[in-house]
Specification:
By secondary structure, this protein is an alpha/beta fold. It has a domain of 89 residues: 3-Layer(aba) Sandwich (Rossmann fold). Helix content is 38%, strand content 17%. α3 links the parallel β5 and β6.
Length: 144
């Protein structure tokens, strides 16, 4: 069974991250993926919306998949149902991406094991925005 990293490691990860690709981004402002991405963008992170057919969101170009993104990705934040996670993990492994965050309710033990075996830091069934707020990341980032 997957265990998320200790809170100090999660805080450290969120302090190092600059660019977050949001897989399953919704253009609808009321949806959690949109609200959380906008909140993280407001905290200084560069957000890369990942959604087929979407051209732009939150003032950024959107991409159909992770392979299409031209620049670096520090963290992949996943807002997809658990049964859709394994192909995302495979793409992250192929691209050598360092970290994946599966949002609240997104639990896929096989995908977590595959990611961990490939050396990817994986946080599962947690909210990146909640972690940012509760772990004192803003203060830690400004102190750097």
């Amino acid at each position: 069974m997957h265990r998320n990293p200790p809170v100090d490691d999660i805080r450290s990860l969120l302090c190092k991250v600059n660019t977050i690709a949001v897989v399953g981004f919704s253009p609808e402002p009321a949806r959690p993926s949109h609200r959380i991405a906008a909140a993280m963008q407001g905290c200084g992170y560069t957000i890369i919306p990942i959604r087929p057919g979407l051209q732009h969101a939150l003032g950024e170009p959107a991409w159909p998949d992770l392979r299409s993104v031209p620049g670096p990705i520090d963290l992949v934040n996943v807002f997809r149902a658990p049964e859709h996670v394994m192909p995302i993990i495979d793409e992250c492994i192929e691209l050598g991406l360092p970290a994946v965050w599966l949002q609240d309710g997104v639990v896929n033990e096989q995908a977590a094991a595959r990611a961990s075996a490939a050396g990817i830091v994986l946080i599962m069934n947690d909210c990146v925005w909640r972690a940012y707020r509760t772990l004192g990341v803003a203060a830690a980032r400004s102190a750097q």
